[in-house]
Specification:
The structure holds two protein chains of two kinds. In chain A, helix 3 packs across helix 16, helix 5 packs across helix 6 and helix 5 packs across helix 7. In chain A, the strands form five sheets. Chain A has a four-stranded parallel β-sheet with strand order 11-10-12-13. Chain A folds into two domains: 166 residues, Glutathione S-transferase Yfyf (Class Pi), Chain A, domain 2 (Up-down Bundle); 171 residues, Rossmann fold, CATH 3.40.50. By secondary structure, chain A is α/β, with parallel strands linked by helices. Chain A has 18 helices and 13 strands. By secondary structure, chain B is an all-alpha fold. Chain B has a domain of 107 residues. The mean pLDDT of chain B is 94. Classes of the chains: A alpha/beta, B mainly alpha. At the A-B interface, helix 2, helix 3, helix 4, helix 5 and helix 6 of A face helix 4, helix 7, helix 9, helix 10 and helix 11 of B.
Chain lengths: 406, 230
């Protein structure tokens, strides 16, 4: 995207987009990849009778990854491995993913036979171990396989952690046998998916279909993208990279979708920094999270790009970057940008209700200026949502149905 | 200046050090150290704490048993587990080394670990007994005063706002989504069979006992033979 400027009330900030400052194009050669293609080992183990490999259902999209290998992304028949933080505290995040599937007419499954990956526990308190984490992952994979739907993982941490688990199970036969014993004792098949797929990869795969359904002019909207650490730093080889976006030097998910929707993506210098979530820190040592999220992320974005919205693709990132701004604002810091997932942003762009679908009332930082700039009447939408709430309270409506939001 | 934890016998420090380096993950997490500091430059915790992933890698690479013990007590809980340190040009995984060191600290019930996780036990309870970590009813203003009045809004309207969600699995308040009973029982069996429940006994015996009772009662009715010896 070419460099442009964004005019704000008090100043003009140049928008440095996602083109790199070189004419050289880097096209990775899979033959030169510094890491093995673990998927080949996964299939070899299937040939040796070690496990079943669940194939990506057809039709699928093929996306380029960091070292130029192609990754299969299913369009439909997806088993939605939900995120505890998204469903618990940012429910518009998951709802938007489901809504987008429905709008595109894709068949999906929202399971009850699913636990979280429990990696929040593993990373926060270490009150778990390799075998437990692998057994939790393989139990969920078995549950997906039994439905005939393919796992699509909503949380960046679950996605990254499951790739760690896959790596450990491939390379450690003792662990593999231990976990196989556990899964078989539960009466479940020992099965691993052919690809481990994050929902933001699905968003990337369907971005042109999303674009066709955009109903709001997003050209004035400037966004900044926070790439989630556990999406592309853990087992980094199969994250999606596109030579057309950041010259293939950063992951293309989120950015590719936002640009397809017609909004601007502005660059900022601390893009590689984490959000400050910290797992343990966000709950019991939040002074760290607040400081990092605001000083190293939001304030830098404000200073360098002055975005209308911060978009990301993981649970903890939305939480840290959104909730941390209240205290900083009270101290008069240069913050105050709404934060949401690209799934919520895409849903809004495609006409989703801001409260019935994207559920923005669960977010902390003021999102109304963004909605106004997108041409969405927040006041009217809130009044409509309040009518729903009254009906639920009065018992005349059991709950909000999909039929009422499509 | 006297070394930290000088009162702890060398044999004890060596025992814990060995537990770390004998972990199956260790050999793929540490290959040496160039001492370049790239991991520190990328590390969020290094910006706000007296903390360095480089020192973690170096202490383990040099087999500095005293320093590893000190780090296991004073440093490891500062790590954000973001894994930005995977930028290491040597191929190290300092965040992964810290994961192992934390597990050893938990398994051995170190006093500093109990202190670091003192406020965290209700989260462990939630994760291990429900299979979902962050439930909607955890959003309470006294727990998150720095998140502003919006948290109170959610808490005040929680039940009705959850019903104002189109996905039927998400009308829950005590769980992030509706988890089947069978699913939870299978999770309990996993905690027992992998020794995870036993880890909690080292950390908080009371919490362990409460969870064990919940899990044993559920498993008794489930038809799952949860005997650990199997």
């Amino acid at each position: 995207m070419a460099t442009s400027t964004t005019k704000t009330t008090d100043r003009t900030v140049p928008v440095r987009g996602t083109s790199v400052e070189t004419t050289k194009t880097f096209r990775p050669d899979p033959g030169e990849a510094p890491e093995e293609d673990l998927r080949e080992a996964v299939l070899q183990l299937e040939r040796e009778g070690e496990w079943i490999v669940q194939r990506v259902p057809e039709p699928y999209y093929e996306a380029p990854t960091k070292y130029g290998r192609m990754k299969k992304i299913p369009y439909e028949r997806t088993w939605h491995h939900k995120s505890c933080g998204q469903c618990g505290h940012i429910p518009g995040y998951s709802t938007s993913i489901f809504w987008l599937n429905r709008v595109l007419g894709y068949d999906y499954f929202d399971p009850r036979d699913q636990t979280s990956c429990t990696a929040w526990n593993y990373y926060a308190s270490a009150t778990s171990n390799q075998a437990a984490q692998a057994a939790v992952a393989m139990r969920n994979f078995a549950a997906a396989y039994e439905t005939g739907y393919f796992p699509l993982i909503h949380c960046g941490t679950s996605f990254g952690h499951y790739k760690e688990v896959r790596h450990e199970l491939v390379h450690d036969h003792a662990l593999r046998r231990q976990v196989r014993g556990i899964i078989e004792r539960l009466g479940r098949p020992f099965v691993i998916p052919e690809e481990i797929v994050h929902y933001s990869e699905w968003m990337y795969a369907v971005r042109d279909q999303l674009q066709e359904r955009v109903v709001h002019d997003l050209s004035p909207i400037v966004s900044t993208v926070h790439p989630a650490c556990h999406y592309y730093k853990l087992q980094s080889g199969d994250a999606i990279y596109d030579p057309e976006i950041y010259g293939g030097q950063r992951t293309a998910v989120v950015t590719g979708v936002v640009q397809a929707l017609g909004a601007q993506v502005a660059d900022y210098s601390t893009w590689y920094d984490c959000c400050g979530f910290g797992f343990r820190h966000i709950l019991v040592q939040r002074d760290f999270t607040r400081s990092f999220a605001t000083l190293r992320k939001i304030e830098v974005m404000k200073e360098e790009a002055n975005p209308d919205v911060v978009l990301t693709h993981d649970t903890g990132c939305v939480t840290s970057l959104d909730k941390s701004q209240f205290a900083a604002q009270a101290h008069g810091r240069n913050v105050g940008v709404p934060v949401m997932s690209e799934s919520q942003f895409a849903a809004l762009a495609m006409g989703a209700h801001p409260f019935r679908v994207t559920q923005l009332h669960w977010h902390s930082t003021d999102y109304r200026p963004l909605l106004a700039k997108m041409g969405i009447d927040a006041e009217q939408a809130w009044a409509e949502f309040q009518e729903d709430v009254k009906k639920i309270e009065a018992g005349t409506m059991d709950y909000l149905t999909w039929e009422s939001v499509l | 200046m006297e070394k930290a934890y000088a009162d702890v016998p060398a044999e004890e420090k060596t025992r814990l050090y060995r537990e770390v380096v004998q972990d199956a993950r260790f050999d793929t997490y540490l290959y040496g150290c160039y001492e370049c500091g790239i991991c520190v430059a990328a590390c969020p915790s290094a910006r706000f704490y007296d903390f360095s992933p480089r020192k973690i890698a170096q202490a383990l690479a040099r087999e500095d048993v005293d320093l590893v013990y000190e780090q296991m007590n004073d440093d490891v809980w500062n790590c954000s587990q973001c894994f930005s340190c995977l930028r290491c040009p040597r191929g190290n995984n300092p965040g992964g080394l810290i994961t192992i060191m934390r597990e050893v600290a938990v398994n051995n019930g170190l006093r500093t670990t109990k202190e670091a996780l003192a406020g965290y036990t209700r989260i462990i309870y939630k994760i291990m007994t429900t299979g979902t970590q962050v439930s909607p009813d955890m959003l309470q203003e006294d727990a998150f005063p720095d998140w502003g009045p919006q948290v109170k809004d959610v808490a005040d309207h929680l039940a009705v706002w959850r019903r104002a969600l189109p996905p039927e699995t998400m009308h829950t308040t005590a769980l992030s989504w509706d988890v089947e009973e069978r699913t939870m029982r299978e999770l309990y069996a996993i905690w027992k069979w992998t020794g995870t429940l036993d880890m909690i006994a080292q950390l908080d015996e009371g919490l362990h006992d409460i969870m064990e009772e919940i899990m044993d009662d559920a498993l008794e009715d489930s038809g799952i033979d949860a005997a650990v010896s199997d």
